[in-house]
Amino acid sequence: MPNYMQTYRKWQADPEAFWAVAAREIDWVEPASRVFDPGQGIYGRWFVGATCNTCWNCVDRHVASGRGDQTAVIHDSPVTGMKTSFTFTQVQAHVGALAHVLRAKGVTRGDRVIIYMPMVAEAIFAMLACARLGAVHSTVFGGFAAPELATRIDDARPKAIISASCGIERSRVIDYKALLDEALDLAVSSPDFCLILQRDAQVCDLTPGRDADYADLVGTALAQGHMAECVPVAATDPLYILYTSGTTGQPKGVVRDNGGHMVALKWSMRYHYGVEPGDVFWAASDIGWVVGHSYICYAPLLHGCTTVVYEGKPVGTPDAGAFWRVIQEHKVAALFAAPTAIRAVKKEDPDGHLVRRYDFSNFRTLFLAGERADTAVIEWAGRHIGRPVVNHWWQTETGWPMTGNPVGLGILPDKAGSTGVPMPGYDIRVLDDAGVQVAPGILGNIVCKLPLPPSSLPTLWNADDRFTNSYLSQFPGYYATSDAGVMDEDGYVHIMARTDDVINVAGHRLSTGAMEEVIASHPDVAECAVVGVADELKTELPLGLYVVRDGARTDTDQIEKELVALVRERIGAVAALRSAVKVDRLPKTRSGKILRGIIRAMANGEEWKVPAVIEDPAALPEINDALGARGMIRSATVSTD
Ligand code: COA
Ligand code: AMP
């Protein structure tokens, strides 16, 4: 087995040869005429000229090669008390039947299909059925409110929507159908049809002429043995669009291709995650996030692993031993979780009593990503589980780890606070704001030298200019990650903070800009600012500050309640805006830029000072007093030099 350094150098020496070898792991209909063509797309395209089908590689090829009786998907749902398993042969039948239904209703290659579903096996089948037909899915996280869903419907203009009657959270049933109806009322674009999965917890009325019953149609197709064949698509064709938060309220539609995505994900399973076909791999995320796309759905199935679709929480369903129960019961080899989830478990079971109740003999590694993992949580998990805990870093845009610890290449010594070393494909640099590379250990902008490796986004959906402006313009020749951090002398990367208006709330990537747009739409608000404030459990929580307009109502308690409710209603409960504080003015530079960084430092109890460029020096101490009066600040030191 080659080690990390040999492998990384091999990639550096000849990236195309490296990815050509990795591509041998994939079944192609036609092989690529060029592994990488720098003349195509915005910064080049991978596997140009190749044709393939992602669903074939995830499902049919395993049936064809004798893996049909192996469990492919386990749905474990403590919130409903159900556990269901599907072999690769059964997944093939379900996916083929669903693809048959979609095709019969007119869905063909290139059409978009929105998937708005809870954590059920059918959500995976829906993604794979789209891939089977060459249709482009866009899976929307169930925790988003109707207006967010409507924005995505209008951007993707889907031919069909696949949804469910409800989702089940710890303490309540979420009426997905009502959210879907509201979104379709708000959206300009309308699908030809919706396919609705009825769930026992709450059955819904179907809208005549628009909705069809999932179980009726797919059940009939299954019973009649209908199975749509896999449609060959270009490797460069889009497999899916996944909307993610950016600086504005308009989410970015990250485009993922078929060929490069398969090659990189398959490589990552063996070499980064250190798992083999037949192992059970569990990503405790949600199919609405990139981790769910890559490591609940596609990568484990591409690699011939069993994947776990978990419909529950780390705590409260029923207790903080839930993760360990799933590991024992399903013989999980590797778990991928958000640090927040482990923090929630640690908080409820600090001494690890529940951990000791379960058998970890099949378990090898815990992977953490999605947000900053503090040393305390890594140390706690390592001590109680007795297995390596790997912190790694990536983004929706890349679809797989940019830095990590390649377990399959021989795990490297861990460095506290680090997210590991660059994976092959990523030439990571740290630049100052002028674009000059900084010395090891110095904080700067983390960038990746172009071209990006297979699986990374070639562009944003229908928004090439936005793609270039958002990622490629700031540092010509590099992809700007919008993360700040350092690389040390040994090449380990440490991610410190976002450089844009994105915050991370309980592992959910959210835009403060989007929240500001919602608050600013309130009739009593003249202007506002939202910043992410450190939180022990959820990493960050949004805090809103607002200034009322002339003639506004004076009942600030009521206005605050309305603002909190408005963010929940327009963006979703996951946004978790708990408070909005009225202030007389916002601190701005003379050119009108709101000094959000200082507000954040103030609320976090960090040292801050009044900068020379401020328009109105009294604004900051006033905010300090307003936050202090509400107990929203630990300590602060004002300095005016
Ligand atoms: N559909 C509908 N609503 C959802 C939802 C979904 N898929 N996911 C979350 N919500 C709702 C919750 O019900 C909650 O609503 P409430 O305010 O009415 O209680 C709200 O959104 C916030 O949810 P969440 O962020 O999950 O917080 P929580 O307090 O319920 O749970 C944790 C705290 C730490 C247990 C939880 O945040 C968690 O498991 N985090 C890990 C997330 C993760 O894995 N992210 C993947 C990134 S890789
Ligand atoms: P998402 O696109 O939702 O996966 O969020 C990506 C962002 O999450 C990154 O740009 C980082 O800001 C943050 N992130 C992901 N993984 C880590 C990590 N291991 N450590 C610190 N931040 C991380």
From TrEMBL:
Residues 62-449 form the AMP-dependent synthetase/ligase domain. PROSITE patterns: AMP_BINDING. GO terms for molecular function: propionate-CoA ligase activity. Residues 4-58 form the Acetyl-coenzyme A synthetase N-terminal domain. One of its GO terms (cellular component) is intracellular organelle lumen. The keyword Membrane applies. Keywords: Membrane, Transmembrane, Transmembrane helix. Belongs to the ATP-dependent AMP-binding enzyme family. This is AMP-binding protein. It comes from Nitratireductor arenosus.
